[in-house]
Specification:
10 strands; Spore Coat Polysaccharide Biosynthesis Protein SpsA, Chain A; alpha/beta; ten-stranded mixed sheet
């Protein structure tokens, strides 16, 4: 049998020591037959040497500050066949690495493999699934597909150093960098997927980035500029225009919200995000109330 590929797990972190230790414990507990090394990358903070061991290495972000730069620091430091991502507040479930490495080893093509997730928010858990063993570029243009969370990514390192490329550090606030990476990777081969929930993804009112409206707006516009195929797709563009309408409404920019809402309706008249944006823009309901309702069901805007 072909030897199991070695895997370097990149864990960016900043100011979440308790969650980080839980994430590391779940990674170390993986029953994987190949070599696994963990690279904890401290962003904007000194590395904590107490975490280091024969399998865990700590370093500081040597590139652009932020999540993208921290991930790239870890990717370049990994001396492994594959690279996996895990956010410091998420936890892997048993069998994750084995299932995903096997999927890569037995597929005829593909550089990235993901898996279903369990979203934990405010004491409630929801399974999100891609619903298929592969995800195409066309599907990702139409939808970000929340089940393909960055904490599920396992990627061939050669692809990250070659035709796919590193995580893009130019995207504002490092928001949407995972979707950008999936879109780039899926141009050459579909994203492989394991149809089992093998990672727990933690959302919280305190940390969930969707409330950082200015950064969210800038990163969404960046995605439209970077990937013109989204603007050409009626469903994909309506979704992002609706998100921009909601973000502007939540930020108090009513005029901009109405502009993006109108653009969304022109692309797809039944786009649900338009109604949410208008409800916030007119003061009918708060953006926080809508987000709390959606997050309890494992969804975002």
């Amino acid at each position: 049998m072909t030897p199991w590929p070695s895997i370097g797990v990149v864990v960016p972190t900043r100011d979440r020591p308790e969650q980080l230790r839980r994430a590391l414990a779940a990674i170390i507990a993986q029953d994987y037959a190949g070599h696994v090394e963990v690279l904890v990358v401290f962003d904007g903070r000194d590395a904590d040497p107490s975490l280091a061991s024969d399998r865990v290495h700590t370093t500081t972000n040597s590139r652009r500050p932020g999540l993208a730069g921290a991930r790239n620091t870890g990717i370049l430091a990994a001396r492994t066949d594959l690279v996996a991502f895990c956010d410091d507040d998420d936890q892997w479930l048993p069998g994750k690495l084995t299932a995903q490495a096997h999927r890569l080893m037995t597929a005829s093509a593909g550089d990235v493999v993901t898996c279903d997730i369990v979203v934990d928010y405010d004491g409630r858990s929801t399974v999100r699934t891609a619903g298929a063993p592969v995800v195409t570029h066309e599907q990702l243009v139409r939808s970000r597909m929340a089940a393909l969370h960055s904490s599920t990514f396992v990627i061939r390192k050669a692809a990250l150093l070659g035709h796919v490329g590193l995580v893009d550090e130019a995207i504002p606030g490092s928001q949407g960098e995972d979707w950008d990476l999936l879109l780039r990777a899926s141009r050459s081969a579909p994203i492989l997927h394991v149809r089992r929930p093998l990672a727990r993804v933690s959302w919280s009112r305190a940390s969930y980035f969707a409330r950082e409206w200015e950064s969210k707006i800038a990163s969404t516009v960046w995605m439209l500029d970077r990937h013109p195929e989204i603007a050409r797709d009626r469903a994909g563009s309506a979704r992002l225009y609706g998100q921009l309408a909601f973000a502007h409404a939540a930020a108090g920019a009513r005029g901009d919200a109405l502009t993006w809402a109108w653009r969304a309706v022109r692309r797809r008249p039944w786009e649900a995000r338009v109604g949410l944006a208008l409800a916030v823009a007119t003061g009918l309901i708060s953006s926080d109330a809508i987000l709390d309702f959606l997050h309890r069901r494992g969804r975002g805007v």
